[in-house]
Amino acid sequence: MTFGYSPCPNDTFAFHALTHGLVEAPFRVRPVLLDIEELNRRAHLREFDLTKMSVGAFAAVGDRYRLMRSGAALGEGVGPLVVTRTPMSLEEAVRGRVAIPGRETTAFQLLRLAAPSLTDVVEVRYDR
Questions:
Q1: How far is CA 94 from the centre of its chain?
Q2: Which of 33, 66, 74, 116 is the most buried (most CB within 10 A)?
Q3: Which is it for strands 50-51 and 98-100: parallel, antiparallel or unpaired?
Q4: What does DSSP assign to residue 75?
Q5: Are residues 37 and 102 in contact, defined by beta-carbon separation less than 8 angstroms?
Q6: 3-class secondary-structure state, position 12
């Protein structure tokens, strides 16, 4: 069974036992590690049997995948952050160019809700 997930620490920790055969499972897992926006794109292509994806991507492919009860990394104190070189408000930050991890990512979807005036975005992998 192919399993796409990201190389971020949350995912590698959460899925380590499954992908390294440390827990019993009725199947073998072949992990494929990619950044979240690439996982979102490949979910549209049905490339993996099991995959991590953003909530925004799931909305478009929910007829092809089932949502699991575990695996989310979003909650109070956990999840997307807006980071700036110097302290400023969100309103000030979105007047300039903002790097996002992908257009279908939860981070970008939440940022658009919080800052509807945002117009200048550039996609950058989270590890760059």
A1: 21
A2: 33
A3: unpaired
A4: B
A5: yes
A6: helix
* Residue that has been written with the tokens 């991890």 in this structure: 101
Give, rounded to a whole angstrom, the gap between the first and last alpha carbons of the chain.
29
- Integer-rounded Cα Rg, in Å, for the chain is 16
Predicted confidence (pLDDT) per residue in 23-76, tens digit: 998 999 999 999 999 999 999 999 999 999 998 899 899 899 998 877 666 777
List the structure tokens of 22: 């440390």
- 98 DSSP β-pair partners: 121
Q: Per the structure block, which two tokens stand in for 13?
A: 């920790």
Q: Which residue has the tokens 């979105």?
A: 94
The β-bridge partners of 122 are: 99
Question: HSE (CB half, 13 Å, CA atoms) of 26?
Answer: 0
Locate tokens 């478009």: which residue?
60
